[in-house]
Amino acid sequence: MESGVHMEKRYRTLLSLVLLGFVSWWLYLDRLNFIGELRYAGTKLWITVIVVLLTYATDNLEWRSNSLRLATNVVGVAAGAFIIGWRFAALLPGVVFLRKGSYTLMDRLRIFANYVFTYYCAGIVTDWLPSEMSLLSVFLYLMVARAANWLLVDQIGHGKSLSQLFMAENVLSLLLVPSYYVVTIAQTDPHRVFFLSLPLITLLAVREFLKVREMAHQETRSRKRLENINRDLEKILDMMKLIRSSQDPEKVFHNLAKLIAQTFGYRYALLNLFNQVEDRVERVASWGISEEDFKRLKENAPTVTETRALMDPKYRVSKSYFIPEGAEPLDEGEVFFGFYEESSEENAWRPADMFLVPISDSSGETIGYISLDSPVGGRRPRIEEIRMIEVAAEIAGRIFEDSMEYIQAFQRAQRDSLTGLFNHSAFYSHLEKAVKADTPLSVAMIDVDDFKKINDTYGHLVGDEILRRLSGLFRESLRESDVIARYGGDEFAVILAGVVPKKALEILDRIRVKVEETDFLGIKVSVSIGISGYPQDGTDPEMLVEKADIAMYRAKSLGKNKTVVYEGGEENGAHQENRGDAIDREEIEM
Question: For a Cys-Cys bond, which of 107, 333, 473, 533 suits 103, CB 3.0-4.6 Å?
Answer without folding.
Answer: 107
